[in-house]
Amino acid sequence: MYTMADAAPRLQGLFTQLLGAPLPVRIRAWDGSQAGPPGAPTLVVRNRRALRRLLWKPGELGLARAWVAGDLDIEGDLYATLDLLAGLVWERGEDARTLAQALRDPEVRSAVRGLVKLAGSPLPPAPPPEEARSPRRHLHTKRSDRRAISHHYDVGNDFYEIVLGPSMVYSCAYWPTPDSTLEQAQHDKLELVCRKLGLKPGQRLLDVGCGWGSMALHAAREHGVAVVGVTLSQEQAAYARKRVADEGLTDKVEIRVQDYRDVRDGPYDAISSIGMAEHVGAERYLDYATDLHALLVPGGRLLNHQIARRPQRDETTYSVDAFIDSYVFPGGELQPVGSTVTQLERAGFEVRDVESIREHYALTLRRWVTRLETDWARAARLTSPGRARVWRLYMAASAVAFERNRIGVNQVLAVRTPESGTSGLPLRAREWTESERS
């Protein structure tokens, strides 16, 4: 029998038995008991339902469901806690074979039985309503992509204003210094993209996945180009069109609710794809690259800004991140940067520059988390407490992942080089950076 105030020490012991290592955080359980390293961040287990979630979905998805539902919480430094837990959860592996192998260990089976007794009712709790119902296999049809984009982006522009700030740029910023403002860093990122594309007055730019219109506005206002921005989000498009009208740029910028696969009014002099290609999917990536190549004039440039994962020894075992797929980006897939470069070149592009800006994304995400935490009550009211918790965990965990080099982000500059072989790029590499500093 369990006494009224011994749940936390029992959980510490069971998790140590289960994981084969001491849990590096303290635990405070629903009965008020506490256990674990003094001074360490505290994992708050608010009820037995949290254990049932973990038992029914061991690993990341069970933890995510408990977090989103408010069954689990963290007291102390969120980043430090996620960093401590990373090796036990995100870097451990949790596919069916790994779990099956673990359950052959008598110690693991004993720990599971102990958790079952402590958890109480055997029935699985229903997933939080914020969870998306994802198919077993993402086909990335136009219909499924629209649905996935709506799940992530159509949660209210007011909510995104809280997180992103006045720049309304939802991708990695480019920081002059860690102490710079988020707005300055996002301005510098947009300017860097424009310089890499070599934009000049009178040219046409296609902005694929244009979001709330920030890149389109910057390119039209600062570089005098005509821009077509496409998005699948109705809310983004409405917001972007208002910004365009407010700035008096309706003659320069057109915002469409349109799939990039349906763009037929090329050719364009340049294409920007910033934080969009993660939605394409591995099986569709060559088609994506081929479509964009066909939309460019000879000599036209593509700037592909994309998050990348690290390659695995056995790529056949790769599976999408369960939490991200269920709560954040349904259907999103990360590929190694080498795969991206290969597919772009297979489509006919000449890849001329690859710049990793991994550390910049960690800085960006930490600023977004701070903005969310500062206006937490309003953010939760605009969406739901569960949705706000999704965003806090996703952004903080992503920041840790970038810092630990589990994922990266790269700007790949590619050219539709004409048969003459003249790329039109400056003779010296990175001239766009040099000119920016001069």
Automatic annotation (TrEMBL):
<keyword id="KW-0489">Methyltransferase</keyword>
<protein>
    <submittedName>
        <fullName>Cyclopropane-fatty-acyl-phospholipid synthase</fullName>
    </submittedName>
</protein>
<keyword id="KW-0808">Transferase</keyword>
<dbReference type="InterPro" id="IPR050723">
    <property type="entry name" value="CFA/CMAS"/>
</dbReference>
<dbReference type="GO" id="GO:0032259">
    <property type="term" value="P:methylation"/>
</dbReference>
<feature type="compositionally biased region" description="Basic and acidic residues">
    <location>
        <begin position="428"/>
        <end position="438"/>
    </location>
</feature>
<dbReference type="GO" id="GO:0008610">
    <property type="term" value="P:lipid biosynthetic process"/>
</dbReference>
<feature type="compositionally biased region" description="Basic residues">
    <location>
        <begin position="135"/>
        <end position="145"/>
    </location>
</feature>
<dbReference type="Pfam" id="PF02353">
    <property type="entry name" value="CMAS"/>
</dbReference>
<keyword id="KW-0443">Lipid metabolism</keyword>
<dbReference type="InterPro" id="IPR020803">
    <property type="entry name" value="MeTfrase_dom"/>
</dbReference>
<comment type="similarity">
    <text>Belongs to the CFA/CMAS family.</text>
</comment>
<feature type="region of interest" description="Disordered">
    <location>
        <begin position="419"/>
        <end position="438"/>
    </location>
</feature>
<dbReference type="GO" id="GO:0008168">
    <property type="term" value="F:methyltransferase activity"/>
</dbReference>
<feature type="domain" description="Polyketide synthase-like methyltransferase">
    <location>
        <begin position="159"/>
        <end position="400"/>
    </location>
</feature>
<feature type="region of interest" description="Disordered">
    <location>
        <begin position="119"/>
        <end position="145"/>
    </location>
</feature>
<keyword id="KW-0949">S-adenosyl-L-methionine</keyword>
<dbReference type="InterPro" id="IPR003333">
    <property type="entry name" value="CMAS"/>
</dbReference>
<dbReference type="InterPro" id="IPR029063">
    <property type="entry name" value="SAM-dependent_MTases_sf"/>
</dbReference>
